[in-house]
Design brief:
Layout lengths: L1 H8 L2 H36 L7 E3 L9 E3 H32 L11 E2 L9 E2 L28
Antiparallel strand pairs: 1-2, 3-4
Membrane topology: Multi-pass membrane protein
Keywords: Membrane, Transmembrane, Transmembrane helix
Main location: membrane
Length: 153
Amino acid sequence: MLKGFKNFLMRGDIIVVAVGLIIALAFSTLILAFTDNVINPIIARAQGGTSAGLGWQLGQAGNKATYLNIGAFISALIYFIVFMAVVYFLIVLPYKAIQARRGMTVFGDPAPLKTCPACLAADLPEAASKCRYCGTAQPTAPATGPGSGPSGP
């Protein structure tokens, strides 16, 4: 039982995921510091005066529980966009390039789908000859490319 667990942990995929999560957490902390210390003061200053942030007080003045803080939402949105851009450009794109050198396609476009005329299931692969739900024979897709159409004038 322990040998199987050890083999599971030592798989390359698990190590890659663990390293990716550690890197993501490190970038998350960096981006959070950026939004808290750079973006939030800019948003607070945009409202002007001595405001605590961009937003409205809904209840009694000075009550933080009833302060609608739009600035915090904008900051979180900027944080999310920056974080996803970092993950995409520093993790996903290099991983795609490495896998392409190995001859594998990852994060590619989804395969084309067709709809079954009998049961209207819309998630059948275009090359399917039978519907996986109702078993109806599927019409074949017309061939495209050189020599597939009528030739000559």
